Structure formats: structure tokens, C-alpha cells
Amino acid sequence: MIDQIEIRPAKHEDIAPLSEFIVPFVEQGKILPRTSEELDELVETGFVAIEADTEIVGFASLEIYSRKLAEIRSLVVADHRQGIGVGKKLVSACVDRARQRNILEVMAVTSSDVFFRSCGFDFTLPGEKKALFIQPHLTE
After folding, report:
1. What are phi and psi of 70, to 5 degrees?
2. Is the dihedral of CA 26, 32, 38, 42 positive or negative?
3. Ramachandran quadrant class, 20 (left: phi over 0; alpha: psi -120 to 50; beta: rest)
4. How buried is residue 46: exposed, middle or buried, by Cβ count under 10 Å (0-12/13-18/19+)?
5. Three-state secondary structure string covering 81-129
6. Are the CB atoms for 8 and 50 separated by under 8 Å?
7. For residue 32, which of 25, 39, 42, 85 sits 20 to 30 Å off, Cα-Cα?
8. Do residues 59 and 105 make contact, with C-beta atoms less than 8 angstroms apart?
């Protein structure tokens, strides 16, 4: 089944179908809503999973912050295609792009840490560095 799904770089023509594709994931709170402008930026370094040469069944983007750091963003896979390796292939495409651009670290902010750990991610960086966060709008 996974061999019938192509992972390819996203194109600007994918923005309209991607906008529709992500709606259920946004409604479920799995990813943040994206404007057309944001999708335009994500498509620049994104990948789509395509089935039957037309249907988008997955998406992920690598947001590059600097030569040192990038983040996997907006990883989503259609419910009927989860569990067959589509997400792993999308993550692998993003990591490969980071490797091609000599980016030192790729991070993922996720509620599915088991999935990302299965893709080779870990909670700590070399030297036991940890990522810490604060939500400024919730603190005074």
C-alpha cells in the first residue's frame, strides 16, 4: 500500500488542495490553522504524499530557522493512510532536506513523541541540552 504513495516536494499548485486537506486536522487541534500566505511559505520546503497521482494523503514541511536549526512543521497524514509509513517517509524527506542543507539539528514540537522517537528523534541533544518553552501570553 505504501508503495502506491509518492512523496514529492510540494508545489505552489498544491496550496489550494492542501488548504482543504488540513481543515480536519486544524478542527481536531492537531495542527495550527494556516493562512494562504503561511501555506505558501511552508510549501517552499514542504513535501506532500500523493496517492493515485492526484489525492493528497499527507504533508510535512521543514521550517529552516538558521544553519543550526530547523523544525518539522504541520505533519499530517489522512486517517485512512495512517500506520503504513507515510508519516515516516514525510519526516525522512524533511530530515534529508536538512542534511542536504547542512543543518545541524532538526526539532519537532509534538503530542506524538512516540512517533518521532520511532523516526530517530530524542528528548535531548548532544551534551544533554534540552529545549524549554514559555508562553508569554500566559505569564506576567
Report:
1. -140, 165
2. negative
3. alpha
4. buried
5. HCCCCHHHHHHHHHHHHHHHCCCCEEEECCCCHHHHHHCCCCCCEHHHE
6. yes
7. 85
8. no
- How many residues are recorded in the chain? 140
**Which amino acid is residue 86, in one-letter code?**
V
- Which residue type is seen at 103? I
pLDDT, one tens digit per residue, over 26-42 is 999 888 888 888 888 88
Q: What is the pTM of this model?
A: 0.87
> What are the φ and ψ backbone dihedral angles of 130, each rounded to 5 degrees?
-130, 150
- Find which of 27-31, 55-59, 133-137 is predicted with most confidence, using mean pLDDT: 55-59
Task: Look at residue 10 in the predicted model and tell me its pLDDT.
Answer: 95
The alpha carbon torsion through 33, 5, 95, 32 (nearest 10 deg) reads 10
DSSP 34: -
4 close to 84: Cβ distance less than 8 angstroms: no
Exposed e or buried b for every residue in 80-113, given b needs 16+ CB within 10 A?
A: ebeebbbbbbbbbbbbebbeeeebeebebeeeee
